[in-house]
Amino acid sequence: MKIVSAILVILGASLLVFALEAKTLDPYKVLGVERNASQREIQKAFHKLSLQYHPDKNKNKGAQEKFAEINNAYEILSDEEKRKNYDLYGDEKGNPGFNAGNAGDQGGYTYFTSGGPGQSGFSFRPDEWQNKGGSGGSQSFSFSFGGPGGQRSSGFGLDDIFSSFFGGGMGSGMGGGGQSAGFSSSSRSQFESKSAPKSIRAVNSQVYKKEISDKGMAWLILSYTPTMKGTQQFESLIEEVANSLQGALQVGSINCETESSFCKELGIHPRREPKIFVYSYVASNSGSLVEFKGDLAVKSLKTFCQEHLPRFSKRIDLSQFEFASGTGETLPKVMLLSTKKDTPVIWRVLSGLYHNRVAFYDAQVHDVSEPTVRRLGVDALPAIVGWLSNGEKQILKTGISVKDMNSAVQELSALLDSFEKKNKKAASSQAKKTQSESGDKQIPLLGVSNFDALCGETTPVCIIGAFRSSRGKDKLQKILSEVSRIIQI
User: Does the pLDDT value for residue 484 go beyond 80?
Assistant: First the structure.
């Protein structure tokens, strides 16, 4: 009898503790966000906490349980339907029988009602068990554990209560399900994500060849299989970095279960956990995938991405550099003048987007009063100066001011597009002019009527060539024109 009494006392204490904990397991409080928090705010909070308490990173006592709570909370708040149900009923399943209390309603504690006629378990009604406290009033708790095996509808059985105290199940004698404390089924389903990342674009071999391979834009790519643990955490990390570098890189994910041969071809097939890669242009003009092996932290991944952005802009010393005009080159040139010691990220991004279309340069200057800057006609920094393929110089923009990288890339891209069009017109005009000049200086056809005029006594040297076909005529024209040009020089 004493043993039974002791068990009941422990059970009562356990339920009391559980009741007190139920009040704090509000998913909003677990993630530390307001009830009107946006999905972006919820995602950021989840990412930060999940990295902090991840069992692989945090070996402290209670970290595993905390990690499970975080995943449960995110599972509710990241799903609009579950979140709505929780806000209305206090239960993500939308069961009105699971009410989240509020001030003045059962003392603000969670009020559980479950079970029903014919269901076994324990039931404590507000009038049966009261906890005195707080301003002389009473606080009531109600629990009902029903269903097979003595497990309540919300998935927390009696065996779990005792497991949290003793580290093991009570055994079948108390009707427990044998499930130990730690990861609940819902947290495991969140941690062991079975679905593909929802907000990152899926990449297959066609997308890779058409939009990624050697297109000049850096990509952040996640390779995974649906059964791998931690996919949600990797996705959250990638999204946060992509948002901070919006405009500088694109993101994508490759499901190496459905794209197995493609992943093996690229050499990015994950083994035990997802992998992160950056499509980099650092090693050569041709891009390549480089694996990220640093800490799973926003700062580390962001730095890694910045290091692997395109580097197609040539850093120059402005005082020792001169652009040759009219060299016959077809590509226009643009140069960024700024006070930055290194090539700015935005300029590196643009150099990738316009690779093989525009030649990029950049130089560090300290003030517009410098002689080299004044010679270029620049009155404010940062500034972009351009040279058309015919050698004509143009001031594209001075005193550049942007609010963020994404808008800066868009604005400067429009500027470079316009400059490219001007260069095409200039190149076309130059070609027509050259053709016209070449036509004007064609070697005349020698005949009886004009022989004396061309090769008479007044002509010191007369070079005569003969041909048999139109092709021979054109070839002879080029040879004699070049000889004539050399003699004139």
Answer: no
